[in-house]
Amino acid sequence: MKHLARPADVLILTLSILAIALLSVQVYGQPVSNPAVRIEVAESQWTYALDQNSTAQVPGPNGTMEVVIRNGEAFVEDCDCCPLKICVSMGRIHRAGQWIICLPNQIFVWIEGTPPDTMIDDISS
Ligand SMILES: [Zn+2]
Predict the structure, then answer these.
(1) pTM of the full predicted structure?
(2) Is the pLDDT of residue 46 over 50?
(3) 1 C-alpha vs ligand 1 centroid, how far in Å?
(4) Separation of 37 CA from ligand 1 center, angstroms?
(5) pLDDT band at 18, cuts 50/70/90?
(6) I need a surface site. Which of 10, 20, 112, 118 has the fewest CB within 10 A?
(7) For residue 2, is it within any domain?
(8) 77-107, pLDDT tens digit by residue?
(9) How far is the centre of ligand 1, averaged over its atoms, from the C-alpha of 51 (Å)?
(10) What is the CATH number of the domain that holds 24?
C-alpha cells in the first residue's frame, strides 16, 4: 500500500491553493506602478523595492530563509528549513504576479502589482 503523495503532487496542489490565495490578494490589493517584493510570514509582512539590491533574512517558524533582491530580480539564496529546497529551486522572480513559496517555513514571497490574468498566464504556461 503506497499512498504517499509524490512531491510533484504536493507541489501541484500547493500551486492550486496558492493561485486562489494570490487571486484574492490581487482582487483586494491595490495595484502599484512600481513592482515591489512582498514577503509574508504568518502575521508579519515586509515590502522591498525590486529595483534596489538587498538581502532579507526572513525568520520562519522552522528556520531562516535568505531572500536576495539583485538586479531587478528576487530569489531565495538559501533556506534552513527545507529538506527539498523547493523554495530555492523555484528560481528568480521579476515580473509582477510571480511568486516563491516555502512551505515548511510558511514564507510567501511575491511581486505585487499585476492584473490577475497576467498571473494565470504565468501559471498555465
Ligand atoms: Zn524553504
Answers:
(1) 0.65
(2) yes
(3) 30
(4) 17
(5) confident
(6) 20
(7) no
(8) 999 887 889 999 999 999 988 999 999 899 9
(9) 24
(10) 2.60.320.10
**What's the number of domains the chain is made of?**
1
- Closest by CA to 101, choosing from 125, 81, 116, is 81
- Name 107's Cβ contacts closer than 8 Å, sequence gap at least 6: 39, 40, 41, 58, 60, 65, 87, 101
Residue 57 Cα to ligand 1 midpoint, Å, equals 12
Q: How far is the CA of 52 from the centre of ligand 1 (A)?
A: 23
How sure is the predictor about 116, in pLDDT bands with cuts at 50, 70 and 90?
very low
As a dihedral over the C-alpha atoms of residue 92, residue 66, residue 34, residue 17, rounded to 10 degrees, the angle is 70
> Do the domain assignments include residue 55?
yes
Instruction: Tell me, in angstroms, the distance from the centre of ligand 1 to residue 113's CA.
Output: 24
Distance 118 CA to ligand 1 centre (A): 25
Three cell numbers written together for 93: 522572480
